Amino acid sequence: MHANNAGRPYVWDKVYSDIPPSPVTAVTVPDNRFTLEGRDLVMVEVGHTDTEATSVLHVPDLALVVAGDVIYNGAHQYVGEAVLAGLDSWRRAIDQVEALSPRSVVAGHKKSELDDDAARTITETREYLDVAEELMGTENSAVDFFNAMIARYPDRIGRTVLWSMSQAVFGIREHPGEDPVQFIAGGWL
Q1: Structurally, how many domains does the chain consist of?
Q2: The domain that contains 39 carries what CATH number?
Q3: Neighbours of 184 (CB within 10 A)
Q4: Which residues of 77-114 are buried (b: 16+ CB within 10 A; e: fewer)?
Q5: What is the pTM of this model?
Q6: 82-99 pLDDT, tens per residue?
Q7: Range of the domain at 178
Q8: DSSP alpha helices (H): ranges in the chain?
């Protein structure tokens, strides 16, 4: 949270106008759990997904996971940072969510008309990573990759995210040894 807040003037304030001030005020809770309205809510740290240090919120007696950046639902997934750590770390995070046995998953990035069915969203998130990884290996440029992903997923929302990610992935690939942050941030601008 602190890292994203520090980068805000360089990326997010340039991409989106009129974002209200948002100081980081979150604090950790003992044992990564708390109770709300008589229900246990458990924070589960799952590692690197579309960004570093991702976590999910599990409500066991509702068979619910609020998945944030781990599970997407009808939206293009941002793999621009994930390529640095490798997509397998994201796959392990998906496995951790699945091991919680949710019936419903609330995705942090979602096409509003879609339901929250856990089995479908988990399967589709995994498949997207597989397709993205395959196309990163076969496409020759950010434009080619972007177009191939649109052809494969024409109904997903978030084409700006897809374009930013495409630029980041191919910028990093085409400039090995250079600071990847310039390509990750630059993809948004």
Answers
A1: 1
A2: 3.60.15
A3: 24
A4: bbbbbbbbeebebbbebbebbbebebebbbbbbbeeee
A5: 0.88
A6: 888 789 999 999 999 999
A7: 2-186
A8: 2-7, 12-15, 82-85, 87-99, 118-138, 142-152, 159-174, 181-186
